Amino acid sequence: MAFKLTLYVFILICTGISARSRRHLQWFPNVTPMIQPTIGEPWPRPQQMKTYATQFYLDPVTFRFNGSSASCDVLTQAFERYYLLIFESNSARGFGRKRRTVRGTPVLQGMAVKLEKPCQVFEQPSLEMNETYTLDVNSNYAQITATSQWAALRGLETFSQLVHDKNGILVINATSIVDWPRFPHRGVMLDTSLHYIGMPTLLKNLDAMEFNKFNVFHWHMVGDYSFPYQSESFPEMSNKGAFNPYTHIYSQLDIATVLAYARLRGIRVVPEFENPSHTLAWGKGQPGLLTPCYTHGKPDGTLGPIDPALNSTYDFMTRLFTELTRVFPDRYLAIGGSEIDFYCWQNDPEIRKFMKEKGFDDDFVKLEGYYYGRLFDVVSSLDRRVSVWEDSLDSGVKLHKEVIVQVWRGGDTDYPQRLANVTSQGYRTLLSSPWYLNYVQNPYSKQDWKTFYMVNPRNFTGSEKQKELVLGGEACLWTEYVDSTNVLSMLWPRASAVAERLWSAKDVHDVDEAIHRLTEHRCRMVGRGIPAQPATGPGYCKQEYMYT
Ligand SMILES: *[C@@H]1O[C@H](CO)[C@@H](O)[C@H](O)[C@H]1NC(C)=O
Asked: Considering the entire predicted model, what is its pTM?
């Protein structure tokens, strides 16, 4: 009797609970559906890809990478890296298991990488690098044919993403891929002056960039709030201008480490020493560099942009940029040019005198143009080219035709007009306006990666020639509210949407298809040690154990 009663009560409780949970769902009829991840599908999506039902099994003990030119460090190190990514980061781990033959599934013995052009040991990735590769998995040996070592890296990344867990073993479907990027410049701009980002985090971010086939790290290193660059020529600048001169700096060794790490992943490092505005922290270690601001005819104790009227300014810039070109090998430097406030220039009697001598009348755009003219002379004498933020072009400064103009205004509505404007004047351009990742849209009302994803950088009124001038774009992260604790989660996987937009064909724009691949890709990054945040609604990653 007692047993029957207990059973009765038990059933009552159970039905009560299930009724409650049903009610719970009814109260929220628009609950976000759970997204099923794809299994072994690449992100960004390759240009041409065929997959077949035949599968191969990967054995961690016998699997080998083979390169046609083993002396190339980029390739040999990539083989080690991808071996670990394939066999250690997947939820089916090869290690510690008894080797077993998988009945009916042929073994993939290895991957042969053929370079069409032998790689040079000291070669650097560049804007002109060729990233086209083919990838074939259809016999016991997979093969990548790559136009360059950089292309081989992209092929290896795709290969690693195709390998997946099937009931505890690693398999890959027979696949045939021909792939190349839609745009040659696919960047992440990260600021490290509003908050300092530590070295381990910067390196992890380069890992994540490689997983997404990004190829430019635009490093906005210094700014108004801090100057963490430890200069050989001007050590006082980080001594006085860094948040902390011992712990919150980038030493020459740190920078060399970032450069080598990025190069091995086919990522260019384009440093930005923004000027002449946003330079307040420069002034701390370099007295006399910034313009003193005057109010009612008297210096008011505050400082403005770099002083363009002094010869000492150009001596300083020559020495600093000479050092920078020795430190950073890329052909391009970003030199800033955003948000110049003329107020302090207008009120400085010395600058007014200088303007009169030069015959600039009261046109401060002419002064800005004069400053850039001299800076460009310095930079081109060092055999470097530059990119600037679009503001300089807007203000009417005559820029050299080689300058790349980065469009950042206009958000996700006005960028087409801005691209049309810049390209109609013949400038090459990079798009960033719709990709300011520091602006977060409420994730409960909108998954903002979808907005990033739907951008088309060539969707503006203009000739074919103008559209060719769009070199690509950059996802930007300004770090007012970001530091080492959250930078990776802020960027990933939101920047992945930008990565696919810049790599994949223009007709790859179906968010309902992409969301399943992005869900898998985010978990893949989690498994590889990147704390990428959930971006596609409720669900879970098999790889979460990394963080619990
Ligand atoms: C991979 O192979 C499996 C097993 O034959 C098949 O079910 C699956 O559809 C294939 N996947 C793709 C993307 O072709």
From this structure: 0.93
